[in-house]
Amino acid sequence: MHLLPSAHVDSFARDHLPPAPTWPELRFDLPELHYPDRLNCGAELLDATIARLGADRPCLRLEDGSVWSYARLRAQTDRIARVLVEDLGVLPGNRVLLRGATTPWLVACWLAVMKAGAVAVTVLAAQRRTELATMIGIARVGHALCDARALEELQAVDAPGLRVVPYGGDSDDDLLTLAAARSDAPFPAVDTSADDVALIAFTSGTTGRPKGCMHFHRDVLAIADTFSAHVLRPTPDDVFTGTPPLGFTFGLGGLVVFPLRVGASALLLEQPSPASLPAAIERHRVSVLFTAPTAYRVLLDQAGEADLSSLRRCVSAGENLPAATWEAFHARTGLPLINGIGSTELLHIFVSAADADARPGVTGFPVPGFRARVIDPATGEDVPDGTPGLLAVQGPTGCRYLDDPRQGDYVRGGWNLTGDTYVRDPDGRFRYQARADDMIISAGYNIAGPEVEEALLRHPEVREAAVIGVPDATRGQVVKAFVVLSEGVPADEGTAKALQDFVKSTISAYKYPRQVEFRESLPRTPTGKLQRFRLRHE
Fold it and tell me: Residue 477: inside a domain, yes or no?
């Protein structure tokens, strides 16, 4: 694919894009995806929104009730951008790591990196020194902006040449101290190319070496102009919030890109938890919520008499949304959850459904701007409707790993292969079955682990469930369930038998868990994804 002339002085990111023949085919079927050749997503999200709607609108809301206007966010962003360029010597194309809690300062840092023409390397505040060292090495990071309260792990990384600048502390070299001394004149955004790399987001993978996913300035806007504009359909009066961190592309989209694109505001929860959501929704009149399926289940458990009537759009992604959770949330609020599947490789959600199109237990249709197929993994050909196969996707975004041979595993024949087993229904809806490596083959039967998990979660005494296949001399594999029970329920053989019988009465009897192990909790990534691999290797 022909790339436009780059504004990057440091050409590392472009030089380490995968070879063009290994890219997925990119599609720009919607007219709004035809962006100008010169494009800076930070300027588009902030300056262009202010030009359309004004600077005095609320932008970032804090839990204590204080609010940053768009004018304040732009002023702080521009001061930080000046520090990056004038004090720290950051050049267009340099990689700048961002690490911290979900605060307005982290948002301002991200926007400043965009406007300075650098490349943001977003990481999670929960990630430790060994993980950080690997990502810093892969992306050749030279600068890091880090919340002063989270410095220890980053400072412990052995990365010669890395300059770590804290923000929010009291040191003389604190970013905010330096920014306060800068001119408040507008910072002119670097005139980046639409296909200059803006973001390197590492997969929140559960095994192996992390993969850096490179996304262009146009990609950042494309996720707002596809999923957000056509499925979520926010308004400038919406108040967004959610639990995913900004180091996770689900959170970056839901808490920064989507609200700023339409001039809405976002409530930033510094230490978000599902249990804290009902009070936050009620107090701040949140209307758009982003969180994971497990969090919706906890939210329902904790909501009590909380007033959730301000909610109008609730997005679930990160892992499969059980039908039982969808139905329980709908019964409590009257709202159909917006289920979605996305990936770090494609930046955000590409199959989803809202409103009358939403169904429990179904992901939905390809998001406008995207195409999806279900294919035979051996031949790459479409399988008949109703037949399980691998989900393949094309759209305006796509997988471009940073100098990683696994590009060929994710992209085949011009399509992104997400690693998920799906079924396409005759009406065109896509229905999740399992991660391809979560299919259990027992006595010749294919059993999707998430289907068994969903059956278990329908039992009133089950809070969480995870299902894996374990070796068995007779059947090859058998289904094993790890279950977190509701408080006060005995973790004994009688409960295990009751759960097994319940599953047999809910789905095909051969799918029931022949082994049941009770746990206090289940292993999850910092982004909330269930880590089944840890259960497999215990």
Answer: yes
**Residues in Cβ contact with 473 at an 8 Å cutoff, skipping those fewer than 6 apart:** none
The answer to whether 512 and 110 are in contact (CB under 8 A) is: no
Q: Please tell me whether residues 390 and 522 are part of one structural domain.
A: no
CA distance 404 to 384: 33
pLDDT tens-digit map of 98-109 = 999 999 999 999
pLDDT tens by residue, 163-212: 999 999 999 899 999 999 988 899 999 999 999 999 999 986 544 578 99
Positions of the chain with pLDDT under 70: 1, 204-208, 443-446, 526-527
- The phi and psi torsions of 319 (rounded to 5 degrees) equal -160, 175
Q: What is the pTM of this model?
A: 0.86
Which residue range is the domain that position 485 belongs to? Answer: 443-536
The helix (run of H) or strand (run of E) holding residue 242 is strand 239-242
Domain CATH number, residue 482? 3.30.300.30
**3-state DSSP call for residue 416?**
strand
Shared domain for 412 and 485, answered yes or no, is no
Q: CA–CA distance from 100 to each of 4, 104, 149, 270, 271 (Å)?
A: 33, 11, 8, 9, 11
Mark whether 314 and 452 lie in a shared domain: no
420 and 458 assigned to the same domain: no
- The number of distinct structural domains making up the chain is 2
Residues in the chain: 538
DSSP string, 378-413: TT-PBPPTTS-EEEEEEBS----BSS-TTHHHHEET
Q: Which two tokens stand for residue 136?
A: 């810093």
Q: 418 and 361 share a domain?
A: yes
Q: What is the pLDDT of residues 384-418, one digit of tens each?
A: 999 999 999 999 999 999 999 999 999 999 999 99
Same domain, yes or no: 155 and 283:
yes
Q: Is 265 inside a domain boundary?
A: yes
Burial 150-186 (b: 16+ CB within 10 A, else e): bbebbeebebeebebbbbbbeeeebbbebbeebeeee
Q: Please tell me whether residues 455 and 482 are part of one structural domain.
A: yes
CA–CA gap between residue 263 and residue 417 (Å, rounded): 34
